[in-house]
Design goal:
Layout lengths: L2 H7 L2 H15 L9 H17 L7 H18 L8 H21 L14 E6 L1 H4 L8 H8 L3 E4 L11 H5 L7 E5 L2 H5 L4 H15 L5 E5 L9 H12 L3 E3 L1 H8 L13 H15 L1 H4 L7
Parallel strand pairs: 1-2, 1-3, 3-4, 4-5
Helix pairs in contact: 2-3, 2-5, 3-4, 4-5, 7-13, 10-11, 12-13
């Protein structure tokens, strides 16, 4: 795996950067070493860079407020001891609180979801990651069908975007079932505007949402400065009660050396990993019961 790419794309660097900021704020309080203020400021700066380039889709205003607070803290922190005042203490406390808030806000999108329920069918709406490109023995939905007693229907179409995937959603026949959305990568790669992406994804969710269905969506691994797509996914996931599979899972598969054939499309090993992932997250090995599709 390309660990450096995964470190940032998965969002892992966000937590490490956050920890460095807190560490830089707290440690100087327990030492009076003359070089410590400079080291602490440098550490906080590195921490913020790790946070900012983590592709974590936090609000820009939150990042801006965080950065300004670090600058204020650095100014007060770099003063000589006699010049330090309540402003230094106050900025330190605020910086720690904001950093902890960042962890608290992001952690729900990092932890492993549990997808359980009395499913009768599994329908996959997606693009070439799910449909395959003809070079694989079996796609991951086909492998999942072999592992599960449920009927798995792969509706994915190569090249699909959120807008065109509405046709796939309209083809879903099950009433009580699990619908997995693996879609949006082509929008990201082909620079669909954030507004178009939001409108398309909203229309897709409106089409697929039905009483009795459970919706699951793969979170997109993002590029730096393309966080808006992630914001849209998270916003609409909350609005439509969609379970998000954290981006670290798909990023981990795509960045595994044998996970893709060209850096994007899944290899046989990648399809197997995807099937194993969905199998484990949905607890099909424990909960699935033989049934007939509606």
């Amino acid at each position: 795996m390309n660990f450096l790419k995964y470190f940032f794309v998965s969002g892992e660097s966000f937590f490490y950067g956050d920890f460095l900021i807190i560490l830089a704020t707290v440690v100087p309080s327990f030492s009076s070493h003359k070089r410590l203020p400079s080291i602490a400021i440098s550490t906080a700066g590195i921490g913020f860079l790790l946070v900012f380039f983590s592709t974590t889709p936090a609000a820009f205003g939150f990042y801006l407020a965080w950065f300004i607070l670090i600058l204020l803290w650095a100014v007060f922190h770099h003063r000589s001891a006699p010049a330090k005042s309540g402003r230094h203490f106050g900025s330190s406390v605020l910086l720690i609180l904001v950093s902890l808030a960042g962890i608290a806000l992001e952690y729900p999108y990092w932890k492993t979801p549990v997808i359980s329920g009395d499913f009768k069918t599994i329908d996959i709406v997606g693009d070439s990651i799910s449909s395959g490109i003809g070079r694989e023995k079996l796609t991951w939905p086909a492998i999942l069908q072999q592992k599960s007693s449920l009927k798995v229907t792969n509706l994915a179409v190569a090249g699909a975007k959120v807008a065109s995937a509405i046709t796939q959603a309209q083809a879903i026949k099950s009433i009580r079932g699990l619908v997995i959305l693996e879609i949006g990568g082509n929008d990201l790669l082909q620079s669909t505007s954030a507004l178009e992406f939001e409108n398309g994804l909203r229309a897709l969710l409106l089409t697929v949402q039905r009483p009795g269905r459970k919706l699951v969506m793969f979170e997109l691994p993002l590029f730096p400065f393309r966080q808006s797509y992630g914001k849209v996914q998270r916003q609409l996931a909350g609005e439509f009660n969609v379970i998000l599979i954290p981006k670290r899972f798909l990023a981990g598969i795509l960045l595994t050396p044998d996970g893709t054939v060209d850096g994007l499309h899944l290899s046989d090993a990648g399809h197997q990993q995807m099937a194993d992932l969905v199998w484990s997250l949905t607890r099909l090995s424990e909960d699935a019961k033989p049934c007939h599709p509606e």
